Input
Amino acid sequence: MKRFAVIGAGSWGTALGIIAARRGHEVRLWSRNAEVVESINRQHVNAVYLPDSQIPERVRATGKIEEALQLAELVILAAPSHATRAILTSMIPAVDPDMIFVSATKGIEIDTGKRISQIVAEVVGENFSPRFVCLSGPSFAKEVVEKHPTAVVAASTSVELGRSVQAELSSENLRIYTNDDVVGTELGGSVKNVMAIAAGMVAGLGYGSNSIAALITRGLAEMTRLALKEGAKLVTLMGLAGLGDLVLTCTGNLSRNRFVGQELGKGRRLEEITGGMKEVAEGVKTTQALKLLATRLGVEMPITSEVHAVLYEEETAQEAAANLMTRPLREEF
Output
């Protein structure tokens, strides 16, 4: 048994806390939301983000981050990417040098284009890089806690550490594979959210299966170009953290990013859509970071550029689709 701290009590952070508790671990779940803390500790449910799932008594919630981290051996980062740097900074006084960091956040920092592993190294210290694991793959929180068979990947530069996290969290319903490609795993989980917004636009415009298939395939091409430029391995993008998560998020009805795109395709404004959502659709902010990163690295990402134009430049989804389909003709690869 280990002591886990889960930083962020949205649906995915809560689900990971439930998974850890089911495996016999003690879990402290941190949230800024007082209603979430109270409902978990009193009713054993997350009334705001995961209301239909019973939370084991081994999970206790707190609004004090130092309390969540006290005696923790493994820290799961499950807060939105845009808040990660500030949260990590607030954690520094309570961080123990032996802690293991597991990132379950799928996003890139807006202003810098940096991945979560890079932010952890900058804020907490380079010595934590070998103690960092990225947990990613096709996994809707609701389905995981309902014990639908799910497969994800734990990526770490330390083979031993990846296997340790694999052993601590795997179950008969959650199969965790390992790899050593943190870069590819992080970028796969980030890029797919932007592609899911695009896929939602396709659905919102009323286009069919041909269009979705084209979008997913060309989205994978963008993901691969960017990740390889950053030093990732091609095989990672063909696996759970790349293609697997891309397919799920672009087609699944539980995808928040796909929902945003679908509503944009129907003509609704972004502020109206996100204003009515309880949780963050990571792709909305990640689009800005990806555009920055693609420009910096000289990587062509036309779908990302069109999603950015719809989100931030007053372009319509219909115009974005037309722009993509009328680009100069070229070879596929």
About this structure: Residues 68 and 289 are 30 Å apart (CA to CA). The mean pLDDT is 97. The first helix runs from residue 11 to 22. The two ends are 49 Å apart (CA to CA).
